[in-house]
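Office hours follow-up: a student asked to see two folded examples consecutively, so here they are.
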Amino acid sequence: MKQGVLTHGCVRLLLSKGHSCYRPRRTGERKRKSVHGCIVDANLSVLNLVIVKKGEKDIPGLTDTTVPRRLGPKRASRIRKLWCLTSLRTQKIKFQSFCLG
């Protein structure tokens, strides 16, 4: 999908440097490529979206549950910040007990 193409189907545009959806390989090169218009209709099978702002109501199954972090921090200062620690020795003890369960 390309912003500014006001159609709901695919069109073939002549794209040059600076356009999205195209990276020229040579100086001054232009190429005709198929791009989809920015109008959403029933013909689209998948539409990827990102939630930018939370509204008044929760979306069931999406914003009503919290997912825990899969990976923790690796840098020592960020580990200390996460666990509210001050010294490195306390950090090692806390991290070992966290890993062992």
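And the second, which I mentioned at the end of office hours:
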Amino acid sequence: MTPSAAGPSASRTEPALSRRESEVLALLAQGATYAAIARDLRLSPHTVDTYLRRIRAKTGATGQVQLTLLAYRIHGYPAAA
């Protein structure tokens, strides 16, 4: 499997995410919608989208699955069975 097919490389160091980016990422990994994330963090849905675009730019993640896997690596969430 090529590195691009595997998603963000596990061998490189984790990106420096802001506290808020990390919170948004954690909620997304738990299955929260953009609207739910916005409500829980008292943000607009547009701001949630902005945070997720920044996270994608920092990590090279191209989709929600890759973002979820990244959250599991960073936050130590157990992988789904």
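Two things to take away from it. The helical segments are 3-6, 19-29, 34-41, 45-59, 64-75. The radius of gyration is 12 Å.
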